[in-house]
């Protein structure tokens, strides 16, 4: 018992120290970077405002959401706090400016996070399609994967093709270099990541898992995650010439041996430092590698932080 108490005290001290590291970094280095003052007048249509004729896919810093379809997961006040990573619906996230969605499913096509369940993936698709009908030039990256430990839904690739139809941007390595205007009227890059089912082939309407990469660090320590993100991002080539999307997630994860298990409380340790991360990328000379930047509980400032750097890239200022 004494050893367990001692371990928890040590962990709390570690977390407090790591939170201070990020707070000090934000204080000393600030959050200034090219485009940091930019605020889109309409987050629902922010890509349109940056000129689809000029904005190239490989210039975009894509604001994304982690475990996107968890706004109604589990049982309210009981299991939901341990798995909910977003409070907004998929549609509301897109209206708020998110352009990358991370959706996990199980065999019956219900969305899940680990063992906890929520609505059918039909709800996700309906929200995506509603948003697409209300906008003209916004491109979405929709990543759908079979959750670890679960079985692939039967014929799910055909389901996605049938549901998204002409919205789908077919796999083509040349897409990365194109402007939004050159891709329209197709609007969705759909990355399908099954556990065992065949992966999408080259040229398919769906994209395979190798086209959306990340390096997940499973930790609840904010400075550890921040520096891990920096390290792995620095190992990537620049987005210009890169033929895959790379994601950095501004999140930390509750750990089973820590008494604080609610997602919101834990991820709040790193969430305020999104702008600090972008500023540090600029300072360390790796901002040209930043592409998908995702978060839990997305908000307006996170979207503005990503759109601002995107705007600077379009204007040749970053």
From TrEMBL:
GO terms for biological process: lipid metabolic process. One of its GO terms (molecular function) is phosphoric diester hydrolase activity. CDD domains: PI-PLCXDc_plant (cd08619). It comes from the Eukaryota. Residues 51-193 form the Phosphatidylinositol-specific phospholipase C X domain. InterPro entries: PI-PLC_domain, PLC-like_Pdiesterase_TIM-brl, PLipase_C_PInositol-sp_X_dom. This is Phosphatidylinositol-specific phospholipase C X domain-containing protein.
């Amino acid at each position: 018992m004494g050893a367990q108490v001692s371990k928890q005290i040590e962990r709390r001290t570690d977390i407090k120290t790591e939170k201070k590291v990020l707070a000090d970094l934000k204080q000393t280095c600030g959050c200034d970077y090219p485009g940091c003052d930019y605020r889109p007048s309409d987050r629902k249509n922010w890509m349109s405002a940056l000129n689809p004729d000029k904005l190239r896919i490989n210039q975009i810093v894509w604001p994304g959401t982690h475990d996107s379809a968890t706004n109604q997961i589990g049982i309210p006040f009981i299991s939901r706090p341990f798995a909910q990573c977003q409070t907004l619906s998929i549609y509301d996230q897109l209206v708020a400016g998110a352009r990358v969605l991370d959706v996990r499913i199980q065999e019956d096509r219900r969305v899940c996070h680990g063992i906890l369940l929520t609505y059918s993936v039909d709800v996700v698709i309906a929200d995506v399609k509603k948003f697409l009908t209300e906008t003209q030039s916004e491109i979405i990256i929709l990543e759908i994967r079979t959750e670890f430990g679960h079985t692939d839904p039967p014929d799910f690739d055909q389901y996605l093709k049938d549901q998204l139809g002409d919205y789908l941007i077919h796999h083509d390595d040349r897409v990365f270099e194109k402007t939004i205007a050159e891709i329209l009227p197709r609007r969705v890059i759909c990355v399908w990541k099954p556990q065992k089912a065949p992966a999408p082939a080259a040229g398919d309407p769906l994209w395979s898992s190798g086209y959306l990469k990340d390096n997940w660090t499973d930790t609840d320590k904010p400075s550890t995650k921040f520096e891990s993100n920096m390290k792995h991002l620095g190992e990537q080539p620049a987005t210009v010439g890169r033929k895959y999307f790379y994601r950095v997630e501004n999140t930390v994860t509750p750990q089973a041996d820590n008494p604080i298990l609610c997602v919101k409380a834990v991820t709040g340790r790193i969430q305020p430092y999104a702008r600090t991360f972008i500023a540090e990328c600029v300072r360390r000379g790796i901002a040209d590698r930043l592409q998908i930047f995702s978060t839990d509980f997305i908000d307006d400032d996170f979207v503005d932080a990503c759109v601002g750097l995107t705007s600077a890239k379009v204007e040749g200022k970053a």
